[in-house]
C-alpha cells in the first residue's frame, strides 16, 4: 500500500477507534459488560467494513479508473448487505447488547466518514500531472517553420 493510501487509512481509522473507545466506555457504564462487548463489536465491524471499502476504492481508482464510480456504488451496496446479514444472524443473540452495538456502529460510521472527508480535503492531490506537461513540450509533432 503506497504511503498516501496508508496515511488516508490512518487518518480515518485512528479517530474512529478513539470514538469507539469512548462508546465502549459509555456502554460499559450504562449496560455493563455485554454493552461494552456490543460496542466493541460494532466499532470493529465499522472499521473493518470501511477500511476494506477504502482499500478497494483506492485500488480501483489506480487500476480501473473507468469503473471507479460503479465500483463505489457496488461497494456501498455490498457493505449494507453484509451488515444486514450480520445483524440478521445476531438478531436474537445474548452475547452482547444489541442497542450498544447499533449505537457504536452508527457513531463509528459517522466518525469514519467525517474523518475521510477531512483527509481528502487536506490531501495535496495534483489536478494535472506535471511530468506529462514536461514531456509534451519537448516533443515536436509537426514541421517547424
From TrEMBL:
The chain crosses the membrane at residues 12-31, 37-57, 69-90, 96-115. Keywords: Membrane, Transmembrane, Transmembrane helix. The keyword Membrane applies. This is ATP synthase I. It comes from Streptomyces fuscus.
